[in-house]
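Quick question, first post here. What does this chain look like in 3D?
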Amino acid sequence: MTTATSPKFRLPKNRDDLIFAAKLADEAERYDEMVLCMKEVVKDSPKLTLEERNLLSVAYKNSVGIRRASWRILSSIEQREEQKSTGNAAKVKEYREMVEQELSEICEDIIQLLENDVLVHGGSDDRVFYKKMQGDYHRYHVEATMDPKHKQAALQAYTDALETAKNNLPVANPTRLGLVLNLSVFYYEILRKTEEGIALAKTNFDEAVQELENLPEAEYKEATLIMQLIRDNLTLWSEDAVSPDGTQVEDVDN
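> Answer (accepted):
Ran it through. Tokens below.
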């Protein structure tokens, strides 16, 4: 995997020090180094605590997020240069493809790490969380490459996660709601099945509202934040149906 790490960076040797280094890298916004730390944590033992699970998610989400933002900017510049016929479009295209390659490598890296190591451990909540992660990174790959294999793989991962969630997690469970949010975005933005995306989001939102009061306080706060994102998307999508403007919808961090 392509990384932007310092050649002077040295990975700690034991798990506690790796966790501390990952948290430090997070605070310093050095996400490629955070990724290296969390990969070593998984290598040491793929059965992750909730804290370790979240650190793994934050590391990859931000590492790929930087590339996603760069890719969007460069794609826009490339289109602009093509329209202006300045002769610079090929230069921008080369740079955009370099970023695209980095993005693809990060996505492939976490997808394989989840499949080969992490997914074989943990309970239902973990399985939903990790399968959603797989779906997300296949989706990020598709955003840049339009690769049909990754599109199908994303749908399969999300579908597996949803089946597990429906059978094992309450409708207002934050992990389940996060899955619903991101899967509805996948339906709407990638598959262009807008009605299915809206229906999935609205149905689960309405059902979760009835169950919120039964959640523990910590889960209640997280669930309400995710439900606000679902509501924001539903509002945006209803407006988009009247006057499309290409506004970016929201999804949830893993």
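The mean pLDDT is 93.
The longest helix spans residues 50-84.
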